[in-house]
Each structure stands twice: as C-alpha cells, then as structure tokens.
Amino acid sequence: MHHDTPLISIIAIGFMLAYIFGMIANRLKLSPIIGYLFAGILLGPNVSFVYNADLELANQISEVGVILLMFGVGLHFSVKDLNEVKSIAIPGAIAQVLGTIGIVALVGHFIGLSWFQAAIFGLCLSVASTVVLLRALEDNNITQTPRGKIAIGWLIVEDLLTVIVLVLLPTMSFMSTGEGFDLGTFGMNLFWTAVKFAAFVFVMFFFGGKIIPAAIYRSAATGSSELFTLATLAISLGIAYIAVEVFNVSYALGAFFAGMILNGSELSHRAADNTLPLRDAFGVLFFVAVGMLFNYQVIISNPLGVIATALVIIVVKSLVAYVLIRGMGKSNRTALTISVSLAQIGEFSFILAGLAVGYGYLTDSMKDLILAGAIISIVLNPFLFLGMEKFLIWYDNRVRAALESNTVTAPVAQEEASPSVTWEASHKPAHAEDKVVSEEKDLTNPDVEIISGASSVIPLSEEELDKAFEEDHAFTNSQVLMSKHTIVVGYASIGKAIVKRLNKAAIPLVVITNNLDEFYETNRDGVHAIFGDFKNTAHFEEANIKDALSVIFTCENIFEIGYTVDKIFVTHPELFVEPKFNISAIASYDDEVEFLEKHHVTDIINLRDLASLILFTRSVDRDAAYKESTEGYTLQLEVDAERVKNKRAKRQALIAKAQILVDEKLAKEKVKADKEAAKEAEQQAALAAQEAQNSADEQAQQVAQQAQEKAEQAQAKAQETMNLAKEEAEKASAVHQEMAEKKEQALNVLKEQGVVDTATDKAEAAEEAEENKSEASEEAQAKSEETTKENKEDK
C-alpha cells in the first residue's frame, strides 16, 4: 500500500468499508449508520484491521459533509423561520445545556471529581451532533414541520454556545486551579466573540445577500451545470472557511448562513439537488471518522462508566429538554421529537473534549468515556426515533378516538349531513364557510360514500394548521373516506395541474405530500391531503388505496417510486388484476422507464418522447395537434401504435402476474384458515378428551373411594369376628381347663379311695385334655374362616 497518498487511501478504503457494512446493516434491517460506525472502528488506530488511517485527515474530510449538510438546511430555512422559533430555541437550548451541566456536576462531585472538571465533562455531554440530528430529522421527514424547525433552531443556539465556550476555554484555567483569573481578559474574549459573530451576520446579510445570489444566477445563466455546481460548492465551502478563519465562527454556522441567504430563490432547490450526492457521501465519512475515534478497551476497563455516560446523554439530557419544552406549553409530539433528536452527541463534544484534555481539564480516560457514550448514543438514536413514532401513532389513535364525539360535520346537498366529512370543532375557524359536496352511493358497496365534485375541506390559516400539528392529531386536512378516487403524490407544479383537471372532471382525489408548504397550499386550495412521506405505504392505506381507481406520482424519485409500488403490489395484488386500475409515473430516460416497468408501474410517461412528439406536431401544424394528413406524423402514430401494443402486452403480463400473486395469497389465506380450523378442532377435541378424562377419573376415584370404604368396613368386621373367635376359643380353653381340673380332682378322690391306678389315670386325663383343646381350636379356626369368606364375598 502506498502510504504517501493518505487522502486517497482514507477516502477509498473508508467508502468501501462503509458501503460493505452499511449494506450488511441494511440487510439486518438496521440503520446504515451502524455499519458506517463499525467501518470506522475497523479503520481506526485502536484496531487497524485494514489500514491505520490518519485520524486528523479523516476528521477534516468529514467536516466537508457537515458543511454541505448545514448549507442544505439553510437553503430550506429562512430568517422568518428562525425568528418564529427563537422564543423557544434560545431559552430552551441555554436552559438544557445548563441543566445537563448542573446534574452532571452534582453527580461528578459526589463521586470525587472537582466541580470544574465535572462541569466540563457535563458540557461535553450536553451538545448534540449537527449531522446526527439533521440526518434523523430528514430520515423521518420532519425537517420542514414546526417541531423540526424548533429542533434546528435549538441546534443553532447550541452551536453558538459551543463557539463561545471554545473561545473562552483557554481562559478558564483559574476555575481548575483557583488562581490566575483575569476578569479583563475573560470579558474581552467574550466581547470580541460577540463582536465577530455580529460582524459575520452583518456581512452575510448586507453584502452576501447581494453577492451570493448574483453569483448563483450568473452561473446558471451560463447554461453549464458544471459551473453551477462549482459555484454552489465554492459558496458553501468558501463561506464556511471564511467564517472560521476570519470571524472565528464554526464551519456549520458559516455554511448554514450561506444557505439561508439563498433561501427563497428559484435556484435554491437546484442548488440543494446538485450538492446532495456530495453531501451524502461526505456525511458517510463523518460517521466513519467518529468510529475511528472509538477505543474499545474503555468498555472492558470501565463498563459502569460507559453505561453511566450513555445514560446521561440518552436519558438525562432528553428528560431535561422534554420538561423544558412541555413547560413552555408545547405539545407532547414536539417535546418528544426534540428530546429524542438531542439524545446523542458528536463533533462539537469531540472538539471540546480534545481541547479540555490539552489544557489539563479532563483526563484521557474521561475523553474515552465521552467517545464511547457518543458511539452508543448515535447507534441507538434511530431506534429511539422508531420507538417514538410507534408511541405517537398509538397516541394519535387514542386522541382521535377521544375526539370523535366532538366533531363538526359539513352539510351536504339537500341539507343532508355526510358522516365522512368531519373536522374537529376546536380547529374550525370563524371565517370558514362550509363547502357543498355532491355524493352518490357505490351500488356495489352501499356503505361507502363516494365524494366527488367540489372539495369539502374547511380552509384553515397557516397559524391554525401549525396549532393543529402541535396538538398531535392533524395529519390530514379532512376525515373523508373516499372510493373510486385518484391518489396524487406531490403537490408541486405538475401535481397542481393534475389536481385542477381532476376537480374540473369531478373526480374525487386525495394528495399525499411530505412538504409542509405544499400541505399548506392544499389546505388553501380546498384539496384533501395527507401529510407524510409516500415511501411509507401506511399513508396509502390512510388514503384508502384498496378502493382507489388510480395513483399518480408527480415527483421524479424513480427508485423510491419503484420500491413503493413494489410494496403496494405485494400488499394489494388484487388492484393490479383490475384493468382499470392504474399507477402512473414520469421518467426522463429509457432505463428509468425499464426500471419502473420492472417494479410494476402500469403507466409511464417518458418526458423526452412526449416533448419530441409535441414539438414535432407543433412544427407540422400549430393549429391542429393531431392530423393524419402529414406523412411524418402518420409514421409517428404507427410508432405509438406499436408502443401501445407492447404496453398492452406488458399490462396483460402484469395482470397475469398479479393474478398469480392473488391466487397464492388466497391459497395461503385458505391454508392458514384451514390450519386455524384444524387447530381449533384439535383444541376442541383435546378439550373434550380432557373433560372425558377428568369425568372418568372422577368416577373412578368415586368407585375406588367406595371400594376403599367397603374394604375398610370388611376389614373392621373381620377383625371383630376374629376377636370374637379368639374370645370363644379362650372361653372354650377355660372350660376345658376347668373340666380338666375337675376331672383331676375326681381322679385324686378316686385315688385316695384306691379305685384308679395313678399313672394310668394321669396319662388318660392328659390325653383327654389335649383332645378337648384340639377340638376347641379347630372349632374356633373354622368359625374364623367362615367369617373371612363372608367378608370377601361382601367386598
């Protein structure tokens, strides 16, 4: 490897590893950011798995991504937007930073740190990352929402506070040592920082406001996209550099103000589009650079410290922000969004920690804790946003259910109220006039109202819409359940023209847009609309796509459209079986047409072909757009006829494919239903068998218990009989004994009289006694056996 080309090496290897692990993370359904961070860990000096990259150079390259990102944010963020959120962002950001520092200082002092050291550590944990915050807002499509604007304003204030701290940090040694405080030097540094920032703002708005737009317009006038892109990069990077070198302001703030100067011009969107690829690419290198800083050994040596640091960043700082925003009267949605977006730290924390270590305010181990906490917070931040969105969906459903009993219904023709056209009573403005809508019944489904003709949307002012957003449940400007309608994605110039024609044809429609300004316009124009990103197919479900006749994509996000239609195809294949159902999109190149066809878009308008057809037709006859008398135009019609034929063949193939999917879906549902039925039958059979077993066991137990009782009775009776027999035997023995004694007495008397021989008599007497005893015993034994037999028979 050639180590004399560190710039090329770090860019090439960084992009390759980021791509590999980003794809792996995506395959595991994780945020690609996790893959980028892991690539940086492998590339960093603490692992050096592939290449020991230059860490300082990597940080400088990643700073380009921060500059382009903030420039893009400024292009969509005006001075008016900044003024609107200043009453929340300025006190909120300052209080959040001070609150976090205070809590960390108290805990740090309790565990043995000095007050100053604990405060500096808390300062490093209180400042959010610009890149991570803006990336999260963009990924969740809330950058242009009121809560997104508050989060960006909050971020700008934090950046300004960081700039002030960076300037004052060298003069803070007296807080650490207790000596050497120079009030004049401290105050002068603070004064010059404020003066330089004010001068930067003045130069940007009074001079930059004229020079920057003029440079952009002149570049666009050349007709060279290369020069226009170059002008955009020169302005964003050049002003960011001047902001740091001349005015001592951060790169991020310089780029943000440069973008804000261009905000509102018709070329601002083109400038944003031109810088988007570079912004994304260098933004990836930012996360790679963060991963390179990570020292995995700190997790082994001090796991409790890492966990505590991460908890401060994710939990403590977020709770402080949440309490502050709720205390300012903002909604639960706004408070959650800002607190979750702030639950991470990044580049400014690294800079502060590095300088603090250099000045001796912090130790290297504390810096490693800050870096480890940053990695953990950045990894978990996408999951926090996902959890927040799920919670807010549950919360929205609960609020909507609670408000269903307190709604205003717009009257329809013949003064008959339509239950499907509703708006919350608290949101109805005093100046709003109820619109009249025509309604008809779907004969195939009488329960579904078909809304057509004039719009039934109650117009709201932008202030009322902002309030509705803040109250957590205004995601659509109407509550209409449509059928046989058209879903229009996007409300820019093409979308507006289509909506106008649909309204003229009395075709019901609903618009899906993730641009807040476009959403405001739909409200002013009285158009049903849903605010959200079309890539989230849940918005199509909200637009009742299962009963729609067509979907029209007016944007040119080819890849997003293709993948979205794929999801719809898998979820609702039955729609594609219906020949009248249509999904339309526009494309500029043949490969885009092929891509959309491959991803089940049924009708694709090739803008180049359409333009060539119109230009050709107008050149032949300006008055008659369609005339078959011209030979060339007849040839064009033949080509179109061939295309129509191919298109029909492809549509038939798509219908067949959809039908197969529908059949498979029905078969799976049938198999699932059969399995559930079989499982239910098996459960019922098992339950019946269990009940039978329980019943049999109970009966057997009763029989056994009865038999046991009889056996015990028989045993008691047998014992009683044996006792009686024993008593009889004893009595018989006593009788025989008595008789023997009497006989012996009689013999003795006879002996005395000399009648009987003594020996003979004794023998005979003993033999007779033995016989009598044997007879008595046999009699008792026979009686006992008879009693036992009777007991057995009874048992």
From TrEMBL:
Residues 487-606 form the RCK N-terminal domain. The chain crosses the membrane at residues 6-26, 33-51, 57-77, 89-112, 118-137, 149-169, 189-207, 250-269, 281-300, 306-325, 337-357, 369-388. One of its GO terms (biological process) is potassium ion transport. It is found in: Membrane. It is a multi-pass membrane protein. Residues 725-745, 759-795 have a biased composition (Basic and acidic residues). One of its GO terms (molecular function) is antiporter activity. GO terms for cellular component: membrane. Keywords: Antiport, Ion transport, Membrane, Transmembrane, Transmembrane helix, Transport. Residues 688-795 are annotated as: Disordered. Residues 688-720 have a biased composition (Low complexity). Belongs to the monovalent cation:proton antiporter 2 (CPA2) transporter (TC 2.A.37) family. PANTHER family: CATION_PROTON ANTIPORTER YBAL-RELATED, SODIUM/HYDROGEN EXCHANGER FAMILY/TRKA DOMAIN PROTEIN. This is Uncharacterized protein. It comes from Psittacicella hinzii. The lineage of its organism: Bacteria, Pseudomonadati, Pseudomonadota, Gammaproteobacteria, Pasteurellales.
